[in-house]
Each structure stands twice: as C-alpha cells, then as structure tokens.
Amino acid sequence: MSGAGSNAAALLDAAAEPGFGASVVAVGADRHSADGLALARHAGVETFTVPFADYDDRGDWNAALSERLDAYRPDLVVSAGFMRILGAEVLERHTVINIHPALLPAFPGAHAVRDALAYGVRITGATVHLVDSGVDTGPVIDQAAVRVEPDDDTASLHERIKSVERRMLVEVVGRLAREGWSVQGRQVRLGGPRQSPSTEYVAEENR
What we know:
Keywords: Purine biosynthesis, Transferase
Catalytic activity: N(1)-(5-phospho-beta-D-ribosyl)glycinamide + (6R)-10-formyltetrahydrofolate = N(2)-formyl-N(1)-(5-phospho-beta-D-ribosyl)glycinamide + (6S)-5,6,7,8-tetrahydrofolate + H(+)
Helix content: 25-40%
CATH class of the largest domain: Alpha Beta
Shape: globular
Binding site for N(1)-(5-phospho-beta-D-ribosyl)glycinamide: 5-7
Family: Belongs to the GART family.
Low-confidence stretches: 196-201
GO molecular function, one term: phosphoribosylglycinamide formyltransferase activity
CATH superfamily of the largest domain: Formyl transferase, N-terminal domain
C-alpha cells in the first residue's frame, strides 16, 4: 500500500469477524508514510515496507518484496491498487489478486477512472482479478458496475467506485478463503478442489 489504506481497513475489519475464514498476517507498503500501516499496527497486525527507490532495478525490488512475503508464508496476497508491476520473482511464488477501478479489459492502467470519463461511457465499475505479468490483464474473479452520472468528475466517480471496491474485495477474499478456487484458462472458479489454500493473506494497497 502507499495511500490512505481504505481497502486494507475494510479487510482488517472483515478478518476480525467470526466466520470470515481468513486472517491478515501482515500489511505491506512501498513507502513508509502509507496511512494503512498505522491502521494495521493499531489492529495488532505486523507491517513491512519495501520502498522501490531503495533498489537499483525492478528485478532487485521484486526479489526483495518476494523475500519479505516469504517470511509471512501467505496463502494469498491482496494487492489493492498497488501501483507497481509485479515481476516473476513475486508471481512465481505467490498468488496475488488485485482490485481495479474499471470493468476490465476496458481502461487498464493507472488512470482508469479518468480514461472512462474521457471516453464517455455510461457504466464503469470495479474488477477483482488475478495478477499476471501484464498490466491488469489477469483472469477476472468478479466485477461490479457503477453508473456514471452526468455531473461526475474523476473524484466523485472514483469515490463511488471505491465504495463498491471495498465491499467486493472483502466478499471475494472471504469466498476464496472459505471455498477455495481453481483456474481453467481465463475462468476462475470458486469452490471445489482448491488450487491453493487461502486462510491467511498479506494486504498491499496503493489507495
């Protein structure tokens, strides 16, 4: 995470509820000032920071991030708007999901809300997807629609999308933890034989 930590807060609150099925073992950030780190510490959850600027190249940073994740042995890594492309050093060792403020494959990248408004769409939304080596190209787990109002600007639309994101992310993480999942091509199926158990997770966030 590197921002206000609203998604991390939602996951921390959900994990404290009986029956959710998962626990947060750590919250990580790419900068020391991320507000979500304080939220995690207040909840008694371990935190860590791996600043991108501390490393000579992207591969070194990915290797350091993977090493920190390894220390917690998470079954699932939750990347909530983490604005870094994760490399093979991370993705070959960890299952990562991401929340994105658009209905993928429309409007990938860092400016999804702005791009949706500029295109003039009437409906956008949010997507939870598995992370692969591309930019918001991994298989979709779930999506929710948000209508664009005539007087919306980027800030107002993004705020409504974030409200939907938080609810959907909590629901998806809970279901992955309780039911397991499998991947067939680009289809992510909840329930049935587990591709990987998901009782603990590390949360990363960038908003």
